[in-house]
Design a protein that fits this description.
about 350 residues; alpha/beta; 10-stranded mixed sheet; 11 helices; about 20% strand; binds glutamic acid
């Protein structure tokens, strides 16, 4: 009897609790199901999304804003890209990342930390041949070009009161020569060496321009150098402080070119920075590069996205340097082999890209 009652009680409790369960938990159950469906759908979208990280340079340089525009172009073009040649279009999200500069970008690509990099043509050639700063490093030899973007100018910026009229006047001055990992520092060493100087003859610091601005305004630093497109924010924002650009004499520029064929004599034109006259210097092309292991069809699509009307019009309107990125200059100063995917794209559009020199 007792046992029977107990059984009834248990049964009753059970029925009650199970009905409470249904009553209370139905909405919760629905929410849980909804969340599960959401997670599953998002993760399956995420599974189909791939990240294309573009290694650039410092925040106030030119690589970074240009890289950002190209990344937007790649991200949005993959929806409307006509040139995908079937085979299913994977979706790519591209982002621009800050970095130390060209040398870091080459290393980042070799290490699989980034997929695309903006790299000076001289640095790319050193990587391809495993020479100069990459001597003995055969891991970086897989670097391949997608395109040449624009010429970068070596800009030696000093405070007027430092009275620096030539490279030799830099002796003893507090100058930022950019970070280890930048193409700028590698070129600065070449420039100093050609003038019979060593960076120890200066009072060097190793900072990106974004960190030197305040120090130049306050006078703690007397200048900084950068190999970058002109005009650039890091220089323009100092115009009110009273700055000059230090020339590299054409004779010295030619000596540099004789040894480093991708560093050629050039000029920063008058009034690119208001009030600053024509300044002779050296220049190099900025390249967009990837690893040779990258899928050919993907590189083809990236190349198509870069040269799409949509990306070009953004480049033209959103950054002063963007105007120099044009199809007819796409193959200028390319110091390493093109990736086969990029080559295929240019071969398909020979007139637009002056591609007659491609075999
Ligand atoms: N060419 C520079 C370098 O590789 C970077 C220039 C920029 O940030 O625009 O160090």
């Amino acid at each position: 009897m007792i046992l029977k009652n107990l059984h009834n009680l248990k049964k009753h409790n059970f029925i009650e609790s199970s009905s409470i369960f249904l009553k209370i938990n139905k909405p919760i159950l629905l929410i849980v199901i909804f969340i599960l469906v959401l997670i599953l759908t998002t993760s399956s979208i995420a599974d189909n999304m791939r990240l294309l990280r573009i290694g650039t340079g410092g925040q106030t340089g030119v690589y970074y804003p240009i890289g950002k525009i190209i990344a937007q172009g790649i991200t949005s073009s993959n929806i409307s890209l006509e040139e995908t040649e079937g085979n299913g279009i994977q979706k790519y999200i591209s982002v621009a990342q800050n970095s130390g500069g060209s040398i870091d970008n080459v290393k980042g690509i070799a290490a699989g930390e980034i997929e695309v990099g903006l790299v000076q043509a001289d640095v790319a050639a050193w990587a391809f041949h495993a020479e100069h700063v990459f001597k003995g490093n055969d891991k970086v030899q897989g670097v391949r070009a997608i395109a040449s973007l624009y010429p970068e100018k070596f800009q030696i910026v000093t405070r007027n009161d430092a009275k620096v009229k030539s490279v030799n006047d830099l002796r003893g001055k507090h100058i930022s020569v950019d970070e280890i990992g930048s193409g700028t520092l590698a070129v600065m060493r070449i420039v100093l060496d050609t003038h019979g100087l060593n960076e120890k003859d200066l009072k060097p610091v190793y900072l990106k321009p974004v960190f030197t601005n305040d120090k130049i305004v306050s006078g703690e630093l007397q200048g900084f150098v950068i190999m970058a497109g002109a005009p650039m924010v890091a220089v323009s924002q100092l115009l009110g402080t009273g700055i000059s650009l230090v020339p590299i004499a054409p004779k010295m520029a030619s000596l540099i070119e004789a040894k480093y064929p991708y560093l050629v004599p050039g000029k920063i034109l008058a009034n690119i920075y208001p009030g600053i006259p024509d300044t002779p210097t050296i220049q190099v092309h900025a390249l967009m590069v990837v690893n040779k292991t990258m899928d050919e069809e993907l590189v083809y699509k990236i190349t198509a996205a870069l040269w799409s009307e949509q990306t070009l019009s953004k480049l033209k309107t959103e950054h002063p340097q963007g105007k120099s990125i044009t199809p007819d200059a796409a193959l200028l100063g390319v110091s390493i082999p093109l990736h086969p995917g990029a080559k295929k794209y240019y071969q398909k559009h020979p007139k637009r890209f002056n591609a007659s020199q491609l075999q």
